[in-house]
Known about the structure:
The chain has a single domain, classed as Vaccinia Virus protein VP39 (Rossmann fold), CATH 3.40.50.150. The chain has helices spanning 2-13, 17-21, 29-40, 44-55, 57-77, 93-97, 111-126, 146-153, 176-193, 210-223, 234-243, 262-265, 270-275, and strands at 82-86, 104-109, 136-140, 163-167, 196-199, 246-252, 281-287. It contains 13 helices and seven strands. It is of the alpha/beta class. The protein is 49% helix and 13% strand. It has a seven-stranded mixed sheet, with helices on both faces. Strand 1, helix 6 (93-97) and strand 2 form a beta-alpha-beta unit. Helix 3 (29-40) packs across helix 7 (111-126).
Amino acid sequence: xxxxxxxxxxxxxxxxxxxxxxxxxxxxxxxxxxxxxxxxxxxxxxxxxxxxxxxxxxxxxxxxxxxxxxxxxxxxxxxxxxxxxxxxxxxxxxxxxxxxxxxxxxxxxxxxxxxxxxxxxxxxxxxxxxxxxxxxxxxxxxxxxxxxxxxxxxxxxxxxxxxxxxxxxxxxxxxxxxxxxxxxxxxxxxxxxxxxxxxxxxxxxxxxxxxxxxxxxxxxxxxxxxxxxxxxxxxxxxxxxxxxxxxxxxxxxxxxxxxxxxxxxxxxxxxxxxxxxxxxxxxxxxxxxx
Length: 290
């Protein structure tokens, strides 16, 4: 129970990303934001929510638009037909990808968060002309619990295409021992279903935001009872996953620079972006046996 409470703090501390996405062209961002705002209007969470976003707007929006769009690009390249998104939160990716009826998409998060997501999606579908999403599933659980992971991947079948496991923003909140457990849990479905694991959670600092802003962000999370544990460097992260039996491919955020929308709205130069946030990376990992 203690672990569940700790991760719930993390899950709700990240909801301000819903606001950040409204400054991008990421599909369904505005719709999710409006429904969430209705749910929290007039309570302290709304005040904290808006205040946190405004104080970190430039950093939050640019970095996470890069991250989101690169993940989508990598998913397309790897033929995403079956997708398991861990710690999916209120991200709209599941809604976006299941526009294709041939895609099976499973969102996985802690019980309270996944139920909130389910309710938001149901409300959005019931109040719009959007088609139903029978291929979008919501599963509650803990990424470190084997039974929960088995339930999540039970929606996929051998022969229907490779499975893509994706997570954004989860690994930095796990200890290195927990990361090892998570890595091995992933190898079971990846070996069986011949897919890959995509994550941008390599935790490089952002030169545009500066060390002071990054430190302030860590202090804010700690004030909410959330503790982080990052890799010391990209080389350390790569070695870590290779020792777990993965082949690691590195891909740079700058690959999606032409697709960025928030950059022009937030007045950042191309050089700053490409040499700062754009120099950060995501890992695409496959089991060495596949």
